[in-house]
Design brief:
Blueprint: E1 2-10, E2 13-19, H1 30-37, E3 47-52, E4 60-65, H2 75-87, E5 94-99, E6 102-109, E7 112-116, E8 123-125, E9 130-133, E10 137-142, H3 151-160, E11 170-178, E12 181-188, E13 193-195, H4 199-211, E14 219-224, E15 227-236, E16 239-248, E17 250-258
Bound molecules: the ligand N[C@@H](CCC[C@H](N)C(=O)O)C(=O)O.
Ligand LBFN2T5F binds at residues 13, 65, 71-72, 74-77, 136, 170, 188-190, 198-201.
Length: 259
Amino acid sequence: MKLHFYKYQGAGNDFIMVDNRNLSFPKINTHLINKLCDRRFGIGADGLILLEPSKNEDFTMVYFNADGNEGSMCGNGGRCIVAFAKQLGIITDRTTFNAVDGLHYATIANEIVSLKMIDVSEIKVTDSYVFLNTGSPHHVLFSKNIAKINVKESGAKIRYGAPYFEVGTNVNFVEKITANSFKVRTYERGVEDETLACGTGVTAVAIAAHITNKTNENSIKVEVLGGDLEVSFEKVKNKYTNIFLKGPSQFVFEGKIAI
Ligand SMILES: N[C@@H](CCC[C@H](N)C(=O)O)C(=O)O
């Protein structure tokens, strides 16, 4: 059988997209998804995303990490599936869709997608790190010169260490640039390596920077290895709400692969 796939990237976080409206994709086949995401033996990607039907919304997003396991929310993948839904003619310039963490509203104009993320109120702030869940779990560390960090090695130690262990977390290393801009490098759980960008990660970083008073702004620019993203939010009492992740989402190529 041949699988028709589409490849997308959002700030260098890359995804295999499959139109699974007929529900024919074998999604319990972890080995197959892992192989499709392999950069030598497959198409190559940080994750695979299925676009499926939804009863009340435009579509449903089902996200798998590159290791083949179904993941928690993927912010850049969420932005890319909006561009994919537009390419398939399912939406025009705005949408509401289902994902693992609930409903997401998004707009798209000229390959720039702005995606509404879940509200965040539970935030653990310690002397050395901040931990929060923006759809996926994120450990955030502020540092001086992140270019020098071995993200794969240091990220893996935190991801597999206490208090996370096997369940794990994503790990973000952050450096402040200006009053409202930060540089971020992320170790992604499920890819088990540094990726060029992580959408739920930069969202977590913007909120962590705000709650620890590293910025007073509520529109934050974030520079990642694969490009630039923006996060905006409102803080109402102890809750971060109306959180939007904005940045480019681009179609790269499409093809057919034997599965
Ligand atoms: N790249 C993603 C994050 C995906 C989730 C993560 N790998 C996990 O399972 O925790 C993003 O853009 O948010």
